[in-house]
Amino acid sequence: MTTRTTRMSTTAAATTRAVRDTFSGLPAAFWWLWTSTLINRLGAFVSTFLALYLTVQKGYSASYAGLVAALYGLGGAAGNLVAGVLTDRLGRRPTLLVSQTATAGAVALLGFAAHPWTIAGLAALAGMTTSASRPAVQAMMTDIVPERHRVRAFALNYWAINIGFALSASAAGLIARYSYLWLFLGEALLTALCAVVAYFRLPESRPERPGALEDGPEDGPVGGREDGPVGGPEDRPVGGPEDRPVGGTSLGDVLRDVRFMTVVGLNLLLVTLYQQGLVTLPLAMGRAGFDSTDFGLVIAANGILIVALQIPVTRLIEHRSAGPLLVLSALLTGVGFGLTALADSVPFYVLTVCVWTLGEIINSPTQMSLVTRLSPVQGRGRYQGVYTLSWSVAAFVAPLLGGVVIDRYGADAVWVGSLAVGALAAVGYAQVMRRSQDSPSSATPATPPASRS
Q: Which CATH number, 3.90.1480.10, 1.10.10.10, 3.40.190.170, 1.20.1250.20, labels domain 29-207?
C-alpha cells in the first residue's frame, strides 16, 4: 500500500512539474495573444462550411462553390503579402486591429449577400482580411517570446488553433441546422471580440531601433545567444538575421533570400499534402464506397491527436536539432499519405491519418522556429507574410491538383505521388540544414556588430 501511494505521489508530482514547465515562463502578452487566437478559431465557421452553404442553402452548383473557395484562397494570398508589409511599416498591433475589424465586417456582409458576383467578391475580401492577421500574430509572437521558449510558444498557439477548430466545427454543424446566417454573424462577433482583446491587452512589439536584437531582454546579455529551439549553433542557417543588416528589408530582399525561400518551398510541398487530407481524401473515400460519416470519423483523428499530443511531443523535441526533426516530419507525412493507397477500412484510414498527423505535430513548431531565425528583426512582417503565403497557395492549388489527378489517374496516383513529395521534402530539409553545418560561420556564431548593442 505504501509503495502504491508513493508511486501515485511521484506520478502526481511529475505531472504537476510537466504542466508547470509547459505553461510557465511565457510573457503575459503571449497569453493574451493566445487567447485572441483561441477566440478567433472558435469562430472560424465560414471557411469550413462555405461550400455547404453555397450548394445546400443557396442552391449553387459545385463548380461555383469551387470558384468561390478558390477566390477565398487567392484573397488570402494577397492578404498575406500586404499584411506582411504593413506589419513592418505600421506595426503589429495596428495591422492586427485593421485585419480583424475588416474581417468582422466582410464576414457579416457575406452572410447577407445574395447576388453571385457579390458573394464571390466578398468571399475574396473575407479571405484577404482573415489571412492578413497571420503575419502580425506570428511577428508579434516572435517579438515578445524569448528565443529559448519559442518552440513551446508556437506549439501552444498551434494547440489553441486546433482546439478552436475542433469546437467550432462541432458547434457550426448544430448552428447551421437552424440558420446559416448565424454562422456568419457568429464569426463576425467573435472576430470583433479578438479586435477588442488586441486593442486593450496587446502592446505594440515592433522593434523601433534598426540595430535591435533578435531576442528580447529576457534572453540574456546584449549580444548574447542562447541555444534556441532549433538546436545549437549548427542549426543557425548561414545568412540568418545575425549575419545581415536588419533595416530596410523589402519584399524583393525576402524573395532573393535563397535559403529562406527554399524553406518556404519545402513548406509548400508539405502543406499541399496536408490539404489533400481535407479535399482529396473525402473524394477518394467516397469513390471507394465510404460515406460522409466514415470520413468524419477518419478526419476527426487529426484534430484529436493534435490536441492530445502537441504539448507532450513538443516537450520532447523543443531542445533538439531542427534538421533531423524536419526530415522526420516530412517522411512521416509522405508515408502517412502513401499508406492511404492500401487503406480498405475505416480503422486503416484512421491509422494513415495518425501517421501524417504526427509529422504535422513535429513540423509545425519546429519549422516556425526556423523561420523566425531566418527573419531579420526589422523584416519579420514581410518574412512571415511570404511564409504564410505558402499556406494560401497550397489551399488554392491542392484541390485543383488532387481533383485532376484523381479524374485522370485514380486516387492511388495521389497517394503514391504524396509519398514521393514527402521524400523530396525530406531530402530538401536535409540539404538546407547540411549546408548550414558545412559553412564555417555556422561553427562559430557571428559576433553581432557594435550597432546592435
A: 1.20.1250.20
